[in-house]
């Protein structure tokens, strides 16, 4: 068992108090809105979690059942959320944001971004980088050593530069270890992020990377699916399906007519999922030496129009 240095404990608590003040968490209300911090967190979880339930909110946020119930009743009364009975289990009700609830969430998110940007504008670029590196270090250490009792995976639709670095490293490691691809694949990965990125979704659990997928713009109403990956620790939990559902729903909402992707024939395990979401094999290239292996590239297309 690790021996705890009492001075470390005091420094930890001191930092907690300082950081709480920085974020304004001591204030009962957040972002100059009528919503408390807890209410805002509940809105965030409902927005970012597929088929959210009251039980999931309780477990994820560590809240009392009655407290969550009262907040949800208020949200329902104000037409911010609605419930839908589960087809698999009639005892469960899934919670979703209404259009009005989505508009409130977007305003809160925009206000949150503005507050962070206001704080950062007083910090020069070099110190901003040091700050985010320190945040990443804290998140990685605590996520690794203090795993939650229940692994709840959420999906967000925004990214920062550190996410790109992590996505590249996760992809490199997976294809090197699983398929034996060489370092030329790493160079290729870096090049792919020079494209016109439309959107990236990151799946995570308690700060841990769980998976990712993205879209790249192409002429007309066409987009390319890229960087699809589910971390080994989160496979067979529906994470991949959820990521693709977010992507497909986004494409339909934004009236894209076609999605395509390139893969290789050795990645056969992904085919059933692609087919489930309407992708069909449309092109097969001749086998060639690629990333240190003999590979045959395949193109898959999904028509949305």
Automatic annotation (TrEMBL):
Where does the HTH marR-type domain start and stop, copy by copy? 1-140
> What's a single GO MF annotation on this record?
DNA-binding transcription factor activity
Transmembrane helix: is it a keyword of this entry?
Answer: no
- InterPro entries in the cross-refs: Acyl_CoA_acyltransferase, GNAT_dom, HTH_MarR-typ, NAT_camello-type, WH-like_DNA-bd_sf, WH_DNA-bd_sf
In this chain the N-acetyltransferase domain maps to: 153-296
Would the keyword Transferase turn up in this protein's UniProt record?
yes
An example of a Pfam family matching this protein is: MarR
Sorted UniProt keywords: Transferase
CDD domains tied to this protein: NAT_SF
- Which Gene3D superfamilies does this entry report, sorted A to Z? 3.40.630.30, Winged helix-like DNA-binding domain superfamily/Winged helix DNA-binding domain (1.10.10.10)
Q: What is this protein called?
A: Helix-turn-helix domain-containing GNAT family N-acetyltransferase
Organism (species): Bacillus haynesii
Source taxonomy: Bacteria, Bacillati, Bacillota, Bacilli, Bacillales
